[in-house]
Amino acid sequence: MSVTATYELPSERATQALAARLAPLFEGGDLVVLSGPLGAGKTFLARAVCVALGVDARRVTSPTFSLVHEFSGRVPIAHADLYRLRSPSELVELGLDALRDEGRLLLVEWGESYVEALGGDALLIELALNPRRALLSATGTRSSRVLAALGE
């Protein structure tokens, strides 16, 4: 992944601040892919984005076992965890592409292998542990605009 922007995340507050800066930039149909090792904060960042979009934090939990959670916020949101998927064909069963087409913001954990199957043009956020930071890059026109607006 070519890194376009790096944000240090030394605390939960810093992660929440990044989410608060990102959330107003997102529109329905956007794809955000969160990657990084276990414990890097993928679900925490997804929750912070959802909260910044008006979702009650208590409702946002890891979708590891259910695979997809949907929320109503400023934009409709689908939060997915693809850790247990083995192939892009399994995405069809989840209907994530249809959810995106219907105007939901897709927040996808462990989705780096499925960007094209999810329709491409993703904001990629790779979370690192030592030091804690977020490495952001864009794969298309819309995600590039989001990333550029974040840097303004």
Classify the beta-strand content into a percent band. Answer: 25-35%
Nearest-angstrom radius of gyration?
14 Å
> Low-confidence parts lasting 5 or more residues at pLDDT below 50?
none
Mean pLDDT: 91
Distance between the termini: 22 Å
| CATH homologous superfamily label | P-loop containing nucleotide triphosphate hydrolases
Q: Work out the number of β strands.
A: 7
Helicity range of the residues? Answer: 25-40%
**Which descriptor suits the 3D outline?**
globular
User: What's the total helix number?
Assistant: 5
Structural class: alpha/beta
**CATH classification class:** Alpha Beta
Strand order of the largest sheet: 1-7-6-2-5-4-3
Draw up the topology in text.
Elements lengths: L4 E4 L3 H11 L8 E5 L6 H11 L15 E5 L3 E6 L7 H6 L1 H6 L3 E5 L12 E7 L4 E6 L2 H11 L1
Parallel strand pairs: 2-5, 2-6, 4-5
Antiparallel strand pairs: 1-7, 3-4, 6-7
What does this entry show, briefly?
The chain has 152 residues and is an alpha/beta fold. It has helices spanning 12-22, 42-52, 89-94, 96-101, 141-151; strands at 5-8, 31-35, 68-72, 76-81, 105-109, 122-128, 133-138.
Key terms:
5 helices, 152 residues, Rossmann fold, alpha/beta, seven-stranded mixed beta sheet, 7 strands
How would you portray this structure in words?
The structure is a single chain. The protein is of the alpha/beta class. The protein has one domain: Rossmann fold (3-Layer(aba) Sandwich), CATH 3.40.50.300. The chain is 30% helix and 25% strand. The chain is built from 5 helices and 7 strands. It has helices at residues 12-22, 42-52, 89-94, 96-101, 141-151; strands spanning 5-8, 31-35, 68-72, 76-81, 105-109, 122-128, 133-138. A 7-stranded mixed sheet has the order 1-7-6-2-5-4-3. A hairpin with a 4-residue loop joins β6 and β7 (133-138). α1 packs across α2 (42-52). The longest helix has 11 residues, at 12-22. The two termini are 22 Å apart.
